[in-house]
Amino acid sequence: MSILTLSSNRSLSRGYQYYVDNLVSHINKINDTEFDAKVSNGKDKIYQVHLDIAHPRKSTCNCPYADGRLIICKHKIATYFTIFPEEARAYIEEVEAFEEESKKRYQAYLKEQEKHFQEIKNYVYHLSKQELREQLINCLISEEDLDDYYD
């Protein structure tokens, strides 16, 4: 599994933002799959990251969230994106495509809701006064009420 598939959505998005904000420094390539880096929190702390691409769960960071735990934090993601900027581009393109598709689905949903509302409105406007009263009574009286009435 890759570091991106092992991380949470929150770590991915926050790590991407750290990457964009250039908070990763002092990258040291140990070998083809291992790197050390320093990542600022944007304020007053610097965290030490050891990234193992071949075995992402062996990666470490001394931040409070990941220290001593086998999780992928935003600092590890920021380091990964800094080392592999093409992965950062692919990630943000995927996020943007998902958001665009979500907007389209939501707009289609709103359009369908408007259509449904209009159908209900048309139906109600075409009822006679008596039919409208009967429909209202049916809506206000539940089947449970009717069962009690006939018992």
| Unreliable parts | none
The biggest beta sheet is recorded as: 4 strands, antiparallel
Ends apart, CA distance between termini: 64 Å
Computed Rg: 28 Å
* Percent range of helical residues: 55-70%
Overall spatial form = elongated
Tally of contiguous helical segments: 6
Total DSSP E strands: 4
- Return the structural class: alpha+beta
Mean pLDDT over the residues: 90
Strand content: 5-15%
Question: What does this entry look like structurally?
Answer:
With 151 residues, this protein is of the alpha+beta class. 58% of the residues lie in helices and 15% in strands. It has six helices and four strands. It has helices at 3-6, 9-20, 74-83, 85-125, 129-140, 143-150, and strands spanning 24-29, 34-40, 46-52, 60-61. It has a four-stranded antiparallel sheet with strand order 1-2-3-4. A hairpin with a 4-residue loop joins strand 1 and strand 2. Helix 3 (74-83) packs across helix 4 (85-125). The longest helix is centred in the C-terminal third of the chain and has 41 residues, at 85-125. The radius of gyration is 28 Å and the shape is elongated. It starts with a helix and ends with a helix. The mean pLDDT is 90.
